């Protein structure tokens, strides 16, 4: 099963992105006071946390070891979110929406590297969930301008 190792690597890449998203949403929550924005951030954070758990389970079932941290994406998200936090709620939402753009692009770019059940899982579960959180942040961003 040569593809299994590659599939685990790709799923771990997705997992690091999801862990980074959770970290970024947590940081943003501490800098937002508007209840409507807090609700949207909380919902997206929970969606990403759910994907983290789904990805960890899938990787383990494939015999792999799930990533434990966000790696380089975590450093990138800290930099982006740190700048947004200094500028306020609108900038924080914009940074979150940019992160959602990045996550969506990652899924769309790397989905076809997967095989069989891993590809089905990414195409039918991960990608639609990412599209929903992306749309939620995009809609929120539009209402703030």
Automatic annotation (TrEMBL):
Q: Which residues form the DUF2383 domain?
A: 8-110
**The protein's name:** PA2169 family four-helix-bundle protein
What InterPro entries does the database record attribute to this sequence? DUF2383, Ferritin-like, Ferritin-like_SF
* A UniProt-annotated Pfam family: DUF2383
């Amino acid at each position: 099963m040569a593809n299994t190792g590659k599939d685990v690597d790709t799923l771990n890449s997705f997992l690091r992105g999801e862990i980074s998203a959770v970290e970024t949403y947590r940081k943003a929550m501490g800098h937002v006071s508007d209840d409507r924005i807090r609700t949207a951030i909380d919902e997206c954070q929970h969606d990403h946390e759910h994907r983290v758990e789904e990805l960890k389970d899938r990787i383990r079932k494939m015999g792999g070891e799930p990533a434990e941290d966000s790696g380089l994406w975590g450093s990138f998200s800290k930099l982006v979110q740190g700048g947004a936090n200094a500028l306020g709620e609108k900038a924080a939402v914009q940074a979150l929406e940019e992160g959602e753009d990045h996550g969506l692009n990652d899924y769309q770019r790397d989905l076809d590297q997967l095989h069989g059940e891993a590809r089905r899982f990414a195409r039918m579960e991960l990608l639609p969930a990412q599209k929903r959180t992306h749309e939620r942040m995009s809609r929120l961003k539009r209402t703030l301008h």
